[in-house]
Every structure is written in structure tokens, then in C-alpha cells.
Give the backbone structure.
Amino acid sequence: MQTVNLAYHPALMGATGELAVAQAKRAYDNGGYILVVEGGVPTAFGGNTCLAWTVQGKDTTFQQAVLDYSARASQVIAVGTCASYGGVAAAAPNPTGVKGVSAVSLKNTLNIPGCPPHPDWIVWAIAHLLTNSVGPLDCSNRPIGLYGQSIHQNCWRLAAYQANQHATAYGQDNLCLFDLGCHGPQTQAACPSTGWNNMANWCVDANATCLGCTSPAFPFAALRRTTNANNGD
Amino acid sequence: MPTTVTSIDPVTRLEGHLKIEVTIASDSGSQKVVDAKATGTMFRGLENILVGRPPDDAPDITQRICGVCPVSHGMAAVTALDKAAGLQAPDNARIMRNLVLGANYIQSHILHFYHLAVQDFIDGPNMPPWQPSWSTDKRVDKATTDVLVGHYVTALDMRRMAHEMGALFGGRLPHPPAFVPGGFTNSVRPDRISSFQSYLGVLIPFIQNTYIPDVEALASYYPDYYNVGGGTGNLMAFGVFDLDASGANKLLRSGRVQNASTAQQTMDPNQITEQVAYSWYANSTNNLKPSSGQTTPQFPKTNAYSWLKAPRYQNAPYEVGPLARMWVNGDYSRGISVLDRHLARAQETLKVALALQTWVAQLDPSAPVYKQYSTPEEGSAFGLTEAPRGALGHWVRINNHKIANYQVVTPTCWNASPMDNAGVHGPLEQAVIGTTVLNAAEPVEVLRVIHSYDPCLACAVHVMRPKEGVRVFALGAVPGA
């Protein structure tokens, strides 16, 4: 709080209505702020499936707000897979024409995907931007410092994979989840080292397959390996 | 009389996107809300995204509807899918699902009071993001304000701990991946049972000794809010937290009452329809039951003013949420108002936390957590549960092993619904209408009513003070849009 001046955050701020929008507007007028965007940007229906705010009776779509506010930002961070790449909201048939933030703003954007994005990763991104030490990005504009390695290569159950010890159903501890449809081998994220909720757990240690939630293609055509019943029997 | 138009958009300290247009009229020196329109300003179409996908995806995709109460969507989805496949999840799975959902109730209710609602009544610290803020009608003395601000910070810790507690079994929060049809992915590890109990050992005293007394203390400064924001008087609960494999017994049972009575009536999901006369959906989809419901966006549309449909039970609006649950269950009957919603929510938090203590001791590390689930070729079913903020239902139809139709009816659709086919306002609209406003430039009273429902939406409220003699409200007009 002593380092970051959180000018506008609708879920936290005391101000409301035009007083809240005025805080955003003041940052906009000064320029040079870090813009952190959560959520994909709907572009169908003229952007009218998501409004940012209304001032003096005039609605501003989220799409317009992202365009305006990214233009005067020193840096833009897309937080979450929807803001980064479209995510679940952009899954087929993409009913509201959702795009990622950089696809709308056409500005360089630091992507911190994850569904949800890990709070430590968000703080990492802001801290490294402030100290100018983000380092190189991958081809999906994710920092290699966070997303440089796959879930699989650091998985706590890699030894089980190498020993060919595979789970055959949910609920089996310590076995590799590859045969249950784990997306870990194709997913770049730091979950095995950061864990979730202060290391209380993470997906694989709950015997749940990695769903690949940091991937640009998330949520794919299917998230889980499925078994179809043969009703004819 | 001077005319002022005050625009409040976004209403902050909410999750999501909702606009509420409030018309205020002056009468003999006092100002009163005479009309209100709730406008859901966001539509994503996740129901349509689910069509054609494997049914197993439904718990994961629908959890992405909301980061505050994803667990409820996971619960509703696996309940529906289990039923469609004709299987009953093992007892361990039933219990772990309840434990994660209960942990989510605790974090959500604590978040709502301390981090979203309390700033409508007290001034936060003199720095962003708490200031600037409105100053109208702040009655709490400095010493009590300081205590509440201190508890705001403590509550951040409590909320984190509730999340960690839920993640022990759910895998992570939000969006726990452990909810699958057939049961639960996680095993029952004894070390996690004892960790869960340790968290409860901190959370239960906080709820008893801090949260509930803080709500009561706030109520003592604002006793008039026992008479503000009554709404429809119709309360409904789908019921939640199955206590046995059949789901016949629940911690909080299903039922409904009308006109603030205590006369219980049964809740039959077949009596629910969704009306779209004032919603941006095709009229050809009007008044369908969720089992055959359709989501066909149409924007713009004459008379429509919301992306929310208007769910109705036998054509009547119903309030859902902790007050409705506690009322239907016989645990609360003081009244229906802004303060009653806060008090019932706090008391429910304790009831759920104490139940978690019992349930976690019922887990059996040697028993199964999962029964092999196979997707039926076809079938249809529904899953009813309760999100922290009210009744939630998922309806699924499976054809050729894929989802053929999926409909979600959320609690905020019940509470913040637009008008129905008969032109009857939704519960939140009704609760806002009639509210007296001290200062039309800072209508904090309206915020207090809205926040008491804990809507899962970022709100926009327009306040218009009409010219004298001008018709206050024209049906179908969308001021500012």
C-alpha cells in the first residue's frame, strides 16, 4: 500500500459511481500508470454485452474503456486467461465475440494467464514491472520467469510417470494422472513450485488432472478424459 | 424545484456488472425512490458454450461463471450429472463436497460484510482505495470505526484461511478441480482432516466473538434499517448440504414462504419459468421452464433493459439468500430488511462452520471417494443447491454423449431480475423502491439496500431526480442507454 497507489478497483474501493470513475479519469489524465485488466473483451453487439461505467447518462463499454485506458498506460498487464487470450468466455461458439486485451488494444501486454490467475503471479508481475526486471517473454507474451517450464517437468509425480505408475481412476494418491487426461505436459506454469493457497494444495496433489488453465487454447474442445457408457448393453 | 441527475455507475464493492436506475421524487421536503430498474450489463453465454461439449466439462466450465462462488456451480453440476447417470456418489465424496462448499460460504460471507458492505456505514482509512468516498449518514463513532477497520484487516486473514481450508480437499480455490461426476478426485488424507480442524479452530471463534458482535454493533447505530429494504416478502430456498446419500435430509432445507409469513410451502422446481419480456433475449424463448430453456440474445430489443432473465415461481418473484434459507429452515424470523439480511448471513456462517466440524470427523480414509462415472448416451436431470448468495439450479440435457442443452439459474437472477411478463419488479427493485434518500447526490441508502442482497455483480445505479410535474417513469424507456 505504501508502494502501490491503487487508483481504481471496483471490488475494493470506497468511492462509488462518478466519484469512482473520477479516480480512474485522474490517473488517465496524468498518464504513465500500470493498467491491470481482468476479463476478456466482448466485441459483438457493439460491445454492449459488457459495460464499464456510465457518466452523465452516457454508457462506456468495456471495449471502449480498454482501448482508451491502454493508450495512456505505461504498461498493460492482462490478468487471467480471458484477459490474456479470450479463455472460457471466448470458447466456441464465442457468443459475444470475446478477445484478449492485446488483440483489442494492439499494444504490448504482459500476460499473466491462469483460471484463476495465481495471486503470487499477479504480485510478481507488478513487482517486476516496478523494478524493471520482468525478463524475457515467451511467444504468448508470458514471462518466462513464471511460465518457462511445464507442469509436467516439475510435477511432484514425475517419478511415478517415469516408473509407469499410472492412476486408473480419480481418488488414487501418488500416481501419475497422464492416463486420466492430465494437461500437465502441454501446460506452462509454476504451480508445482508456488502451489495454491499458501501451499495448502494444488490440482495434481488433489488427484485432479491439470486442466491446462494457463494455455492460450484453454478450455480446448474438452477438459477431461471422458468415458462413454454403452447404453445398448 | 432544481433538477439534478446523479449518475452512480459503477456501484463498487460488488463482483460483476449490474446497473440500477433509480428515480427519486421529492414530496413535502423528503426525497424517496419511486422507481427502480435493475440492469445486468454483462452477458457471456456460457450456457451456449457448453452445448456440444462432453458433460464432464460442466463442473469446470460453470465454475468460471463466478470467482466468488464457483464451488456452488461445481456442486450443482455434479449433482445434475450424477443424477443423469443414475449414480450416487460415495459418502466421502458427499462430505468433501460439503466441506469445500462450507468453506466457501465462510469466506464469502466474511468478505461480504467486512470488505464489501461495511464501508456503506463507516469511513475507511484515509488513503486509496478506501478514500475518497461518500460521507452522508456515517453515524458510527470514531472508536468503533477504528475497531471495525482493524477487523477489516483481520477478516482478510480469516478469508484467506477459509480459502486454504477449502483447498485442502478441493485442490485449490477459486475453481477447485476436485468436483467430478461420480464423486471427488481427492482422497481422504488424515493430515488434511487435522489441518481442516485447525483452521476451524481459528475461524469459529472469529465468527462467534468478532463477526456476529460486529454486525450487532453496526445494527445498534442503524436500527432504522430494520425497516428499510423489505422487498417482496417472498422467500425461497432450494436447500443445501446433503446429510445423507439420498439428499432427503439437508442442513438447510428447501421450501418457501409468501408475504413474510412463517407458513411453510413446498418448493417444486417444475413451477419455475424464466421470463424475458424485459430482457435482451428473443421473445420466442419467453416463459420457458429451465429444463427446456433457451438463451438467444437479441440486442437491441424494444422494452428490454437487462441481460438477466426474470426467474419466477408460479409467476411470482422470490428473494433468495441466507435470510431466505435461515427463514425457511426455522432458524430466523425477526423480519425482512437490510439488517435482517446481514444478521441472518452472520448467524448462518456460524451454523455452517459448526456443521463442518461434525462432518470432517465423519470422513473415512479407508472408504472410496469416487465411483466410476460414464457419460450416458442420453438423459436429462437438474442439480439444485445454494450458493452463498442464494438458490442455484443447473438443468442439463445429454444427447449422443454430449451436452444438448444447459441452463443455469443463478441467485442474482432471482434477486436482481428485471420486470416479468406482468410488469412486476424483481425483489431488489422492489426493495429499493420506497427508500428515503437524504442526499440525492450521495444516495448511500440505495447502496445499503443493494449490498444487503450480496449481489454477485458490479452495479451501476443511475439516480434521476425528475422535474416537478414531469412523469417520473416511462415504461420501456432506458434512460442513459
Chain A touches chain B through 75 residues (CB under 8 Å). Chain A has a mean pLDDT of 94.
